[in-house]
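hey so i finally got around to running the thing on that chain from the lab meeting. sorry it took forever, my laptop kept dying and i had to restart like 3 times. anyway pasting the input first so we r on the same page abt which one it is
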Amino acid sequence: MAIIKVMDEILANKIAAGEVVERCASVVKELVENSIDAESTEIKIELLESGTKEIKVTDNGKGMEKEDAVLAFSRHATSKIKEEDDLYHIDTLGFRGEALASIASVSDVTLRTSIGEVGTYVHIQGGKVLEVLPSEARKGTIMCVKDLFYNTPARLKHMKSLYTELASITEYINKLALSHPDIKFILTNNGTNLLNTDGSGMLLKTIKSIYGITVARKMIEIKGESDDYMVEGFISLPEVHRANRNHMVTLVNGRVVRNTELNRIINDAYHSFKPDNRYPITVLNITVDPSLIDVNIHPTKMDIKFSKMEELIKLIETLIKSVLHKKTLIPEVVLEETKVASKPNHFVESIRKPIYQEQKLEFDIVKEPEYKETLEMNSDFVEIKEEQEEIILEHPEVVEEKKERLPDLYPVGLVHGTYIICQNDLGMYLIDQHAAKERINYEMYKKKLGNPKEGSISLLFPFTMELANNEYIILKENFEIMENMGFEVEEFGINSVIIKAHPTWLPKSYEEQATRKIIDVILEKEKEFTIEKFNEKVATMLSCKMAIKANMNISQEEMDALIKDLRLCDNPFNCPHGRPTIIFYSNYDLEKLFKRSGFEQKQ
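ok and heres what got predicted. didnt touch it at all, straight out
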């Protein structure tokens, strides 16, 4: 007797739901993407109890006729691909034909849809069609999903907290809104509005709706193309960063995707402009021929593979670095008056969970120093001008290109042997002498490492270094790297080497310690080792050792020399670790601080 049998369709759909429908956010994702594919210009997502009780998606798209409305809930039923070749030219968000069948198998679903004539009402519960009736003729679709996972108790038991579910949904709708700024998105939970974009097609206005005006003011527009790719969007100034990669949004032909390599390249392009453990806010849309990408990797359709990946990496890296190196990136300290909140926090109110208070910073806009922009303000609504303008900063020297990227600065004092006070006509500047000297040293060492034949010093008393046997084998294999840098190194007994000469640029009195650090970098080198990566690590390490320490008083002449050297740096705004070297207090803010400006002065 045969023991292999074909599964019941409802059982197969429940199994498929395990991959397609992981949580409430998965349902929202599939329903909203269907609305986008239906050419909707307005999509409203209404949640009850963070989607655990009800998810309702209303759109004004093309709608469906009766036959299609019923057939849409069948497994592998789709209007988006018809033959095998279509799989290699996908230009829609959905195409697998699994989502609706999977969702309907684990919930109670109602569908109201119309193409503008007589509408159709479909009611499905646990994968079984209960009703198919005529409905109103409103063009578009209303999909309502209730009691998700009611018939799969194991999945229901492991649902996250209401806060976690709502945060996940909000994060994905934010990304969809950024990927389609021409669509008006409305997101509510328990009747409370969480997101409302205007669908104007202006990406910067959508960024403002999600992150607030402070962040929107500090976004820089980038745009460029190669033979196969076009990249456009906005990246944040280095001073605006977050604790995780969730705010690095990558879009491919309007699809929100996850690609670890792209995120790494974007983050690496900010190297030395920000701390390594912080991440920028970016929204980059990549336009490419669909035949050069593969989105059919995972049921969620968020993973993606690129052909000609190296070309794309080079384009993104070049675009970001070129923009950052043209900007004057001095953070400005802006004094803000403390305001008493007049409205409740809508996010907290919508889920009524005190746990949100512990996580608040992930959703609040952290106060950052502001730049004055060309923005039109009207009461509570801030309209960003019709053009997607590049951020226009307050001070004229920011806009003009200069060989020296810092303005003229005149030192007047030193605080705690650490912070140099400078002034000019625009206001007051504070320079961290250790961070500034680190940047100067870093760029000097990078240059020296790029031209290693500038000489070495023979040691009157050579020093030896003993290593573990595995370390000795690795180092012996890489003697050439040290020799190219200007070291004279030889084997010296068992698992030991002797250093007879070193480069002239090693920090004085730290020669042996610096050599040990360089050897450590060689021992840690990865399979993808390049001399560029090696030089970067060595320059960063040595720059700190040679820098002026905090709490060390320096003379007026030394301050002048430090500022002169800093002004000649390619990036004088950050130390190699990404900390700022200089911050700015405008004359206005100084006067405001002492109650000398505008209205305050009259009091």
